[in-house]
Amino acid sequence: MGMDLDKALDAVGPRLRELRKERKATLADLAAETGISVSTLSRLESGARRPTLELLLPLAKAHGVTLDELVDAPPTGDPRIHLRPVVRHGMVHLPLTRRPGGIQAYKLIIPAGERSEPEPQVHEGYEWMYVLNGRLRVVLGEHDFVMKPGEAAEFDTRTPHWFGRAGDESVEFLSLFGSQGERAHLRAKPKRKG
C-alpha cells in the first residue's frame, strides 16, 4: 500500500502540469484562480512539494476534474465512467475520452443566448469537428462559413480559428483534438461491383 501511495502522489505533479497546459493557463492564472502561490504550484508540478488535500481540492475544481481523476485513484468497483462537463468561454465541454495523450474527444454545446464576436485563436494541434444540431459559424483564417448538422471540418489549429452560433438556437458538435502531427486515419472500403 505504501509503494502504491507514493507512486500515486509522484504522478500528481506531471498530471497537474498536463491539466494546466491543456487549459493554456499560466502558473499565475492558476494562482489567481485557486489562491495557491505560484511558487507552491511550481513545486507541486515539479514534485518538489508533496500534494495535500488542502492543495488538491481547489486544483481539482479549477481544472474541472474529480479528485480521483487528479490523483489517478484506482477504480472502486463501479466500471461506469462519470465524465463531468466543464464550462469554458461560454461553451459546455463534455469530455468523451479519459486517456492522457492521443486524440481527445469532446461533445461541445454552445447554449442559446447572446452571440459573441469572433476572436480567432491559434495553438498547437489538429482538430476535427462534426455538427450534431444547430448551425455553427466557423471563422478559419480568411474563411467565414456556417456548418449545418451532418457537416464536418478539419484543420490545423495553428490557423487562426473561432467558432460560435450562427443563429439564435443552441449548437451541439463533436470535436476531436490531437497534438500537432496527429491525424485521423479514415479507411473506406472500395465499392463492390454488381
Automatic annotation (TrEMBL):
PROSITE patterns xrefs: HTH_CROC1
Residue stretches making up the HTH cro/C1-type domain: 16-70
Pfam families per UniProt: Cupin_2, HTH_3
Entries under InterPro entries matching the protein: Cro/C1-type_HTH (IPR001387), Cupin_2 (IPR013096), Lambda_DNA-bd_dom_sf (IPR010982), RmlC-like_jellyroll (IPR014710), RmlC_Cupin_sf (IPR011051), TransReg_Diox_bact_type (IPR050807)
Domain of life: Bacteria
Gene3D superfamilies noted in UniProt: Jelly Rolls, lambda repressor-like DNA-binding domains
UniProt entry keywords in alphabetical sequence: DNA-binding
Signal peptide: none
One Gene Ontology molecular-function label: DNA binding
GO cellular component, as recorded: cytosol
Protein name: Helix-turn-helix domain-containing protein
